[in-house]
Design brief:
- By secondary structure, the chain is mostly beta strands.
- It is built from no helices and twelve strands.
- A hairpin with a 7-residue loop joins strand 10 and strand 11.
- The chain is globular, with a radius of gyration of 16 Å.
- The N and C termini lie far apart (about 45 Å).
Length: about 170
């Protein structure tokens, strides 16, 4: 389940597997806005992915990610960052949690929107590229209906790879 500090009735649209729908704040971004996902049981996580590609400019101005490990109901901050574009990949050391919370830490005139929110434990791929959307040589996009990334190899060769979020290679072109 998902809940939000604002526009809570639309919160389920952030996890409905439909990138055409979205949750948004229905107001300009302000520090302190949040969404909480309750996964009902503990899962190992090391990535949170916020897809706002259908609403350019609506990524969080800044955010912090907290995990609830179930121990005394305490929240542990595991990551923080600033707006990284249409798809924000938030990476942190793997940890088991039953809930996670994303808190807006910045402000800007746009709504904060989430078209799709993904949480996973992803092994870093051995493909030579990493899922870093802020790199000028990397790009996030949909490929055969899956959110994917592509980029040049770490050695800046002409090899191009397309990899899904699990790290599975979908295409290799030398």
């Amino acid at each position: 389940t998902i809940t939000a500090s604002t526009n809570n009735s639309n919160a389920p649209k952030a996890i409905d597997d439909d990138a055409a729908t979205r949750w948004d704040t229905n107001a300009p971004q302000q520090s302190g806005q949040w969404v909480i996902v309750d996964m009902q049981s503990a899962h190992k996580l090391n990535r949170i992915i916020l897809d706002t590609s259908k609403s350019p400019g609506d990524g969080p101005a800044g955010c912090e990610v907290y995990l609830n490990t179930g121990i005394d109901g305490a929240w542990k901050r595991v990551a923080s960052g600033k707006n990284a574009g249409a798809v924000q990949i938030i990476s942190f050391p793997a940890e088991e949690a039953s809930k996670f919370r994303i808190v807006q830490t910045g402000s800007k005139g746009n709504y904060w929107s989430i078209h799709e929110l993904y949480a996973a434990c992803v092994d870093d791929p051995s493909t030579g590229i990493l899922p870093d959307a802020s790199s000028s040589a990397a790009e996030m996009f949909y490929y055969n209906g899956q959110l994917s990334w592509s980029g040049l190899g770490n050695d800046m060769s002409t090899r191009i790879e397309i990899v899904d979020l699990s790290g599975r290679r979908l295409l290799l072109q030398d």
